[in-house]
Design brief:
InterPro entries: RHS_repeat, YD. It holds the Pfam family RHS_repeat. This is YD repeat-containing protein. By secondary structure, the chain is mainly β. The chain has one domain. The protein is 0% helix and 48% strand. The chain contains no helices and eight strands. An eight-stranded antiparallel β-sheet has the order 1-2-3-4-5-6-7-8, with no helix packed on it. The radius of gyration is 15 Å and the shape is flat.
């Protein structure tokens, strides 16, 4: 594991493959905003991006295939809706 000057973290696995994690601090908590690397069985979320609302709740996730998942929460911060493949004919809630 390497902590980089650009506030990212790089993890190298036993096969020498590197996965780089980027972060954003929201409400004092560090949240992952992107994972860059070669997807594998142990890290299928590589090349994914994440966005958060002002409360630090996950708002969207785009996976390594470009599929967008959106999340909606109630006033207490509990997830009330999740739409996978948002904006496509394959969208499902």
């Amino acid at each position: 594991m390497a902590y980089n000057a650009d506030d990212t973290v790089s993890v190298t696995n036993e096969l020498g493959k590197v996965t780089k994690y980027s972060f954003q601090t929201i409400e004092g908590v560090r949240r992952i905003t992107s994972i860059q690397g070669e997807p594998s069985a142990n890290c299928p979320n590589s090349n994914s991006t994440f966005t958060y609302d002002s409360n630090g709740l996950l708002k969207t996730k785009t996976d390594n295939k470009g599929v967008l998942t959106t999340y909606t929460y109630n006033a207490r911060g509990l997830e009330i809706s999740r739409t996978e493949a948002s904006g496509t004919a394959q969208a499902r809630t």
